[in-house]
Amino acid sequence: MKAHHALVADFIPFSWVDGPGNRFVLFLQGCNFNCLACHNPQTIALQSQRAELLSVEEVLSKIRKSTPYITGVTVSGGEATLQSEFIYTLFRAIKDDPELCHLTTFIDSNGSAKQDTWERLAPVTDGAMIDLKVLDETKHLALTGSSNGEVVKSIRILTDLSLLYEVRLLLLPRQNDSELELAATAEFLLAIDPNIRIKVNRFMTHGVRAQARKWTEVSEEEVLGYKGILRSNGVKELA
Ligand code: SF4
User: Whose CA is nearest to atom 7 of ligand 1?
Assistant: First the structure.
C-alpha cells in the first residue's frame, strides 16, 4: 500500500455536499485526529477489517460508472492525506485519461498535512476543503486530541497555491460557537484571504460516539445565526 493501493473505508458514487457540483467521493481509512464530534469514527483506526484495500485501477473503474452523473472526484476520510501518494497516483491517472480528464479533483482534509505534501499534490489537484475545528489551540487539543498548528498553516499554504476551495467549521453549541470566537475566526481567515469561502456544518449526533451523543444538535435556525455573525464580521462567501 503506497502509491497504487489505498485502504478504503467507503465510497459514494454521487454527492452534492463534498465540493462543487456532483461528485464521486472516496473515503480513505485512517485518521491522525480523534475528534469527539467525529461523524465517522469507524474511519479513524489506521487498520480496519471493514476497510478494503483497493488499487488505483479498481477505484478508476468505480469512477467510470459514475461519469455520466458527476463533475468531479473528492478524496475524503478519515484523513485523506495520510495516503497522499495514492491520491497523487489516482488524480494523475484521472488527469491523463481522455475519458476522465474533465473531472475536477478535490481533497477534503483535516488540514494536518505538511507543506511538502500539499506541494506534491498541487499539480494534480483542483481544490481542497479544510476543516478548522476551532481556532483556539487549547480547545482544539481538547476536541481533537491534536494541535491546530498544521491546520492553520495548511489554510495559508493552500491559499498561496490557489487551491483552497473552502474552510469548514463544525460548530458545537457552547463549545466553539460563541459570538466572540466566530468573530475571531472570521478576522483570522479574512486576513489570509478577504474572499475566503466558509462553510458552516451542522453538528448532529448521528454516528458520533457516546460522549458526543449527549451534546445538543444544531438547528437550521442556529446555522443561520452563525452565518449572520460571520457575515456581520465581513465574511462574503458563505455556504
Ligand atoms: S479529522 Fe475528521 S475523520 Fe478524523 S477524527 Fe476528526 S472528524 Fe473524524
Answer: 38
